[in-house]
Fold each of these.
Amino acid sequence: MKIKINNLTIVTSSGLFRKNLFIDKGIIKKISDKPISSRGVDFLIDNENLMVFPGFLDMHVHLREPGFEYKEDIESGQRAALSGGFTAIACMANTNPVNDNSAVTHYIKCKSNETGIPVDVHPIAAITVGLKGEKIVEMGDLKKAGAVGFSDDGYPVENSDILRKAMEYSKCFNIPIICHSEEKKLSKEGQINEGEVSLKLGLKGIPKEAEIIGIYRDIMLAKLTKAKVHIAHVSTKDSVELIRRAKKEGINISCETCPQYFLLTEEEVLGYNTFAKVNPPLRTKEDVMAIREGLKDGTIDVIASDHAPHHIDEKDGEFELAPFGMIGLQTMIPLSLELVRLGVLDFQVLAEKLSRKPHQILGLKPPVIKEGEEACLTIIDPHYEWVLEKDRIRSKSYNTPFLGKKMKGKAVYTIKGGKVFEIED
Ligand code: DOR
């Protein structure tokens, strides 16, 4: 297929350029200043409002299959990812059975390839068998089957000796350990951030220290083992400061945050809004500002969604019984663009956090917009305004506090494997 892209803004690592692209058989054949003739072209994109990014990767997604297909399955998750503008996602291990053995990893790889949906699915395997924090998985087998990272996400590995050994073992495979950093003894039974709102609602709070202590421990273990360690869903001011200092010290650590932590505060749960119940919980304005600062100064490497679908019957009940989590794949682009509009990031840095960094952390080749490179692209309209209505959601679940909210910015095409995929409105 011959694809021509004229008059679009191209976001590369060396800057933003208005250029024209010619793609043939999946390869970027030409990047030129002059529009390319449309003769013999199978698909033409010509719209000066659009921007071309290297393909986006969401490195923190819960697909729920196998085991919880009523919340999400691999296919619906891929559809939501495509609609959100992703060319790849990485999925967490808290399925049933848990992705703690090569058969499950293999299943996820095969199933996601069979759907034909152009979103690569990279499984993240568990650190410990059954996410129980006791016995380390067979990392070699899992890597061979396609695992790109190890995480007990949802559950911290409480035993520091086991986590230390897992980190040491992971070095043989050059695969990151992704830490859900939380001191469970402090957070237990907590529902939302501990503070004014938890007092007002009479809900048990989760103190920020539960995350901060968890992160401190995980940083110290990263320092001790020199393993490649990535901290998931950072949500507090002090967490950012700890990671900033660790990086300055030269510790091999990376981290991510999610749109809910740079846009929302604990007030979102007022009225017992279970769609805003997440772990880690939404924090305070001060934390939101510190997360933005961490994104700006490079302390926070990646923006990921922590897409966590849950069925309405589970969310629509008593607050204490509702599971933690919100979906996020389809809102990642408009919500991340908010950072550009607020002056926190520019488009180039946004591309780093949505494409280059997550690929690098997971040991995958980052897509590059350069002649001779494979065309793996996300094309967005940053100005497009739309409303997140239920019928736009491609996920099986619609648990998001952004439901019914106005969004600005949307993916309109992805290009992958030599084909163009038009994203429905
Ligand atoms: O809110 C969350 N939901 N946080 C996690 O760590 C796990 C996730 C889930 O699996 O639902």
Amino acid sequence: MRVLVTGGAGYIGSHTVLQLLEAGHQVSVVDNFSNSSPESLRRVVGLAGRNVDTYQTDLLDRPALGEVLASIEPEAVIHFAGLKAVGESVAQPLKYYKNNVAGTLNLLEAMDAVDCRTLVFSSSATVYGESVDLPLRESTPRSATNPYGRTKLHIEEMLEELSVSDSRWRVANLRYFNPVGAHESGQIGEDPQGIPNNLMPFVAQVAIGKRPEVQVFGNDYATADGTGVRDYIHVLDLAEGHLAALDYLSNTEGLHVWNLGTGAGSSVLDVIDAFARISGRPVPYRITDRRPGDVAESYAHPEKARLDLGWKAERGLEQMVEDMWRWQSKNPEGFPELNPEPLNHEQLAKFIQGRVDDQS
Ligand code: NAD
Ligand code: WQD
């Protein structure tokens, strides 16, 4: 299948592109590299031994996006492109509504114009807001506690209305829990810019010695050890969920929602302990105040995806940490910095394909 992946150079996108290539799909990527580097795709292409047709295009550039879709003629789109930092979204809400909501609107119009109406969308468990009715099911009422979460909620609603208006649309809203881990090669992984917002990359940077200690945001929650509990899911399991959703949509009409989580929770101290044990490095930590907006616990009811898609997360916390540590130790500074000048389609092709040529 000809699949367009928006945000395909990013953390979850790059792992999904690799699996799409391995499954024999023809893959194109649109990314503005605002939070990623073409180096991730160069490595993906090296791992897969197959090429990715890549465009440095912003979803907000509607004419350019239209041209790219017209030349690719995708049969389906997996839409990762978006901004995802909760704190930044509180400080700059309009940036988030513009990039995430208006960017998605542009994408949907451009898809419609080329008769492509199959979409897998990166939603988030953040749409369950502060729900304490655990485990979280697809039917759990939605709400948002910050502008980032509200962009996901608005996009889900926009897709629902679109599907009602035109039955040719086939849509999967995938609600991810907490994606972590990396490809087992240690060649691709999450490359946070600046101070990581999320627990696992922060712990990895403490283990490698880049940061002195982890701040544990509260140990007085009503959980087994008092620290926050989350449903961490290996990024490779998550990527497999996208391929399963794509398969499902090729046989089934309408809009569908699936949680992608393991169904099991781990506490902040579980994560720190696992990291210290697996890395063999000290991971000092200090208990601080709760972080505003955090819930005590969040974990999925993952059965709907198992029943409909035949998909289930297979990798446990040990493997998530092992793979994260391999990526972190092989790439302590993340991907190398590249020339910030935008690359045209031919320059990108040369850079990315170079990896396959290097190896042949
Ligand atoms: P990421 O930042 O690594 O990847 C997003 C990619 O989209 C980046 O490569 C970025 O350059 C690109 N992008 C952003 N805005 C763009 C635009 N206007 N035009 C073109 N490209 C653009 O993030 P990720 O962790 O891989 O997340 C992928 C998606 O999954 C996001 O939509 C995110 O909201 C969602 N999600 C992520 C998590 C998580 O914890 N990582 C959890 C739930 C949902
Ligand atoms: C996990 C646990 C913290 C950092 C966020 C977004 C959510 C989704 C995934 C995209 C919590 C604790 C964290 C630290 C800590 N993203 N923690 N010290 O908050 O579940 O979800 O990322 O959709 O929208 O809100 O993930 O990794 O930030 O936190 O103690 O330095 O670790 O309190 O209990 P969260 P997280």
